[in-house]
Write a structure and sequence with these properties.
By secondary structure, this protein is α/β, with parallel strands linked by helices. The protein is built from 5 helices and 6 strands. The protein has a 6-stranded mixed beta sheet with strand order 1-6-5-2-3-4. The chain is globular and about 45 Å long. The two termini are 20 Å apart. The model has no long low-confidence stretch (mean pLDDT 91).
Length: 175
């Protein structure tokens, strides 16, 4: 579970939030009951919807917490979506996945990764992708970080994809 509080409640309680939730986007590609669309069309729409809902431009994203489950089809689909949204515009936010350390939380994945993003922003680090030894050449255009970096991502996009082509992208800002 993730607790979201209004600015008024944060002020009333006198606490410092881990991060600010800016907004989200959701889309379904309906490609297949179990696999993502090979071109990442649903995830592209979810990311673009999140950007539109927050008024942010793709160039304002510092870090992408990828869904990245280490499946050939899913990772290729997400990589293609990220290339479409970022690389095609000459952008290269840092990209990593935390699932190599945490495992796949299934229906908990988005909440778990939201917590990780919040902790990273609060503690001032950007999580790396563990255990990548040989990066598939198709992912070379992406700025996939392999080691944790001791700089806080100012603005983060966190992706989640599920069965039936469901895709959600969440946007957070460092407080």
């Amino acid at each position: 579970m993730v607790v979201l509080e209004s600015e008024d409640e944060v002020t009333r309680r006198g606490v410092e939030p881990y991060a600010e939730f800016l907004g989200w986007g959701q889309a379904s590609d309906g490609h297949n009951v179990a696999i993502s669309h090979p071109k990442g069309t649903g995830l592209v729409r979810a990311i673009e919807s999140a950007l539109t809902s927050t008024g942010l431009e793709a160039g304002e994203i510092d870090y992408v917490n990828a869904h990245a489950t280490s499946t050939l089809i899913g990772d290729a689909s997400e990589g293609t979506a990220l290339e479409s949204v970022f690389c095609s515009r000459g952008l290269s936010p840092k990209v990593s996945s935390t699932k190599a350390i945490t495992g796949h939380g299934l229906s908990l994945a988005s909440a778990l990764e939201t917590a990780i993003v919040g902790i990273a922003m609060e503690e001032g680090f950007t999580p790396g992708s563990a255990h990548i030894e040989n990066l598939d050449p198709k992912f070379e255009p992406l700025n996939i970080i392999r080691e944790t970096q001791m700089t806080s991502p100012g603005t983060t996009l966190s992706n989640s994809s599920g069965f039936g082509g469901a895709n959600v992208s969440l946007l957070f800002k460092e407080t």
